[in-house]
Amino acid sequence: MRNVDAVIIGAGPAGVTSAIYLKRYGYEIALLDPMGVGGQLMMINEIENYPGFKNAKGFKLAQDFEEQLNFLGSEVEYTLVKSIEKTEDGKFLLKTDVDDIETRGIIIATGAKHSKLGIPGEDKFEGKGVSYCATCDGPFFKNKKVVVVGGGDTALTDALYLAKLCSEVILVHRRDQFRAQKILQDRVKNEEKIKCVMKANVVSINGEEKVTSVTLDNGETIQADGIFIFTGIVPTSELFKDLTEMDNRGFIITNGKMETSHKGIFAAGDVRNTALRQVVTATGDGAVAAASMDEYLSNN
Ligand SMILES: Cc1cc2nc3c(=O)[nH]c(=O)nc-3n(C[C@H](O)[C@H](O)[C@H](O)COP(=O)(O)OP(=O)(O)OC[C@H]3O[C@@H](n4cnc5c(N)ncnc54)[C@H](O)[C@@H]3O)c2cc1C
Questions:
Q1: What angle do CA 237, 238, 243 make, to 5 degrees?
Q2: Residues 152 and 242 in one domain
Q3: Residues 133, 158, 270, 285: which is the catalytic one?
Q4: Number of the ligand 1 atom closest to the C-alpha atom of 50
Q5: pLDDT number for residue 136
Q6: Rounded distance from Cα 243 to ligand 1 centre (Å)
Q7: Which segments of the chain have a pLDDT < 50?
Q8: Are residues 187 and 256 in the same domain?
């Protein structure tokens, strides 16, 4: 078993920022993530709303994050945290798939994952036409017809990206208006390869070996080779359900200092109950969580 001042669980934008700050404060830290550095960044094709980068590729930004970590003498450990216990002397014992770590404080930065539609065919055809990541899977659908589900920023951004590759993109949204930023709505309107179907829900995904069509609740069946689902996210917070307070959707409740209901445990980024889940807010949270951790470690 080893001892560190603080453990950061998750190396997406929030966790990496916390690590950078804590390292610069001079603490001994462990930054743990089985996927390495990046988190959801690895699924983003282009980011246009992170200051300083007019048009950044997600994986490139992740590489830059990692370079900065390494420059400060820190690195991510490819490790999954499996459980957390409280020790008698007020510390925490983390069991991972590699070793046990004792620490005085924890920053939870485990982010979020895509939510599912929960309809027939969705699980059966995952990886065979059903995707949640245009950056990862878009190139498999070159010159093919795809359906995109959702009405937020991610759905419209990825529909625009897919329109560059695919022969046709059918954007299905359950409401009569998109939630996405106006600049994205305007781009979608001007993209002739995208056709919008409003006030409709996908009720089944059909095919034999692979996806061949999707059926909507308005009775229409659309012939398509793939379906990209962007209908929201769920927090990766199951591991902490007995430790910290959460809202009814499982997002960890924090105050403005990123303190959770449990002393010594902080949360940052998409996993917490926040108004906006973006790279810029996750990095901001990560910095605040690190500053609060510094205050906690100095006083305890
Ligand atoms: C397709 C897509 C497009 C997007 N486009 C944009 C955009 O244009 N602009 C923008 O600002 N934002 C965008 N976002 C949102 C942005 O990526 C997220 O808000 C941001 O990545 C959140 O960072 P995070 O560090 O909180 O969590 P995440 O990035 O989710 O990282 C969490 C990390 O925690 C790790 N983890 C989970 N459980 C454990 C465990 N038990 N042990 C160890 N590690 C664990 C995971 O492996 C993951 O790497 C997009 C997201 C997606 C999916």
A1: 80
A2: no
A3: 133
A4: 11
A5: 81
A6: 22
A7: none
A8: no
Structurally, how many domains does the chain consist of? 2
150 lines ligand 1 (CB under 6 A): no
Question: Are residues 21 and 91 located together in one domain of the fold?
Answer: yes
Provide the domain limits for residue 225.
116-229
Instruction: Please report the pLDDT score of residue 288 as a whole number.
Output: 98
- Taking the model in full, what pTM does it have? 0.89
183 lines ligand 1 (CB under 6 A): no
Decide which of 229, 252, 282 is a domain's last residue.
229
pLDDT given at position 124:
97
Atom 33 (ligand 1): residue with closest C-alpha?
10
Q: Which of 64, 136, 186, 217 is catalytic?
A: 136
- Residue 204, strand partner residues: 215
Q: Are residues 212 and 187 in the same domain?
A: yes
Same domain, 61 and 123: no
CB burial string 113-148: b at 16+ within 10 A, e below: ebeebebebbeebeeebbbbbbbebbeebeeebbbb
Chosen domain end from 213, 229, 245: 229
Interval between CA 35 and ligand 1 midpoint (Å): 11
Question: Which of 8, 17, 44 is the pocket-test mutation for ligand 1 (most atoms within 8 Å of CB)?
Answer: 44
How far are the Cα atoms of 62, 102, 143 from residue 147, in angstroms, in the given order? 29, 48, 13
Query: Residue 248 is part of a domain; what is its CATH number?
Result: 3.50.50.60
